[in-house]
Amino acid sequence: MSPIDLDGIGRRLAELYKDDGEMRVKLLMKFTIVPDAEVTKIWTVWKTLLDSPELEKKFLKEFLQGVVAGLGSMVPAAGGSSSSRQPAPQRFQLFWQALLRLPPIVAGSFLTLPSNVNLLGRDLWGSSLLVRHCYRGIFDRMMELHSSNGKKRFVITGTPGIGKSFFAVVLMGWLVQEIGVSTFLVEYQAGRYLFTREGTNIKVEEGSKTDFKEELEDPLTWWIVDMGKGAEVPACTVLLASPDQQRYKEFLKFPGSSKLYMPVWSNEEIEECRMQLYPNLDKEEVEKLVTLWGKVPRYVLEKARDEWTLVRFKETISRCKWEDIISCIGEPEAAPEASHKLVHLEVVDDKLYNKKIMMPASSYVVGL
C-alpha cells in the first residue's frame, strides 16, 4: 500500500471522527495490525463511500468488529442490510409519525420536522429541507404521466449532490396528503424500510433487500429506491439515480417507464438554504465556493468547510482528461463519474423535465 493511501486514511479518519477521539484511535490501531494487502482492499471499497459519511461510519464499524474480512464480504457490510424483516428503530417511527402530521407541503417553503426527528430517520440528514419548486414540477409531471399514460415506473436523475435523495421525503409527503398512499417501501444502501398506515395503526419495519416481496406485488405500494436498480414489480417504483446509465438502463426497458431530470440549484435556492439551514456560513464564503463547484448544495453548503472534499475535487481535476469532459457533454449517462463534478446537467424544459443539456459546472472549470 502506498504512503499516500495511508496518509489519506489518516486524514479521513480525522475528518469523520473529529469529535470522537476514542473511535479514531481504535480504527487507527486496527489498521496497523491488518496486513497491507487487506488494508488496500478495504481502502479501495471505502473510497466508493466517501460522499456519504453515514455509510462510511457503518462500514468502518463493521471493519472494527471484524465483520469485513476480504473484498467479497465488504460490500454487504457497507450496505448494512438486515437478514429479515423486523420493527425498525424508533428514529424511523418518529419520522413517519411526524410526516403524517405535517401541514400541506408547499413548494418554496421549508419542510421542518421536530428537532429530535431526522428526515427519513437518517442520522445525518437533519430535520429540515427546502422544498424546491422543481420537486413540485417533477411530482406533478409524475402524476400526469401516471394518470394519463399509465406510467408507474420513474427514474429521477441529475447532477450528483443536488438533493435527489431528499426528494424521497417530499414525494412521500405529497403522495400521502394528495393521493392517500398508505404504503411505502424505501430502499437505500442500508436496506429496506416499510412505512405503513392503516387507520390509526402506524408502523415501520426494516429488512434486507430480499424482504417485503408481498408488498412489492401490491400496485398500491410506492417503492422508492435510492441508488439501486429496482425490478419489474406491480408496485409503483421511483429510482433516484446518478447520471450513470448502467444503474437504470435495464429498468427503463420495463413497460411504463419514464426518465425525468432534476435541475441544479439556482443562486436564490442556495442563498435561501444557507440562511435557514447553514447560518454559520458567510454569504461571501458560499458564493466563492459556487464559482468553484457550481450550484450544488452538497459541496457549497453541506461540505463547505470539509478540506477532504476540496482535496478530492483537485484530484478529480488532475485525473480528468478533456476527453472525459467532452464525453460527459456528448453522452453524460456513459461518462466517468468524476467528470460530473466538472460538467453539470441543466434541464431545458422545466415543465416536462425530460430534456437536458450539459454545461460547465462553474466559472473555475471554464477557465481551466
- How are helices and strands ordered from N to C? HHHHHEHEEHEHEEEHEEEHHHHHEEH
Mean pLDDT: 84
CATH topology of the largest domain: Rossmann fold
Termini gap: 32 Å
The assigned CATH architecture of the largest domain is: 3-Layer(aba) Sandwich
Any low-confidence stretches, pLDDT <50, length ≥5? 67-83
Range of helix content: 40-55%
| Structural class by secondary-structure content | alpha/beta
What fraction of residues sit in β-strands? 15-25%
Largest sheet: 8 strands, mixed
Widest sheet, order of strands: 1-7-6-5-8-9-4-10
What sort of overall outline do the alpha carbons produce when their principal axes are compared? globular
CATH class of the largest domain: Alpha Beta
Report the total helices. 15
Number of domains: 3
Radius of gyration: 21 Å
Total count of strands:
12
Give a brief rundown of this model.
This protein has helices at 3-16, 21-33, 36-46, 53-64, 71-79, 90-101, 133-148, 167-179, 213-216, 267-277, 283-293, 297-302, 307-319, 322-330, 363-366; strands at residues 86-87, 110-112, 128-130, 153-158, 183-188, 191-198, 201-207, 222-226, 236-241, 257-262, 343-347, 356-360.
Can you put this structure into words, describing what you see?
The chain has helices at 3-16, 21-33, 36-46, 53-64, 71-79, 90-101, 133-148, 167-179, 213-216, 267-277, 283-293, 297-302, 307-319, 322-330, 363-366; strands at 86-87, 110-112, 128-130, 153-158, 183-188, 191-198, 201-207, 222-226, 236-241, 257-262, 343-347, 356-360. With 368 residues, the chain is an alpha/beta fold. It folds into three domains: 3-79, no CATH class; 86-262, 3-Layer(aba) Sandwich (Rossmann fold); 267-366, no CATH class. Helix 3 packs parallel to helix 5 (71-79) and helix 4 packs across helix 5 (71-79). The longest helix has 16 residues, at 133-148. It starts with a helix and ends with a helix. InterPro entries: Crinkler_effector, P-loop_NTPase.
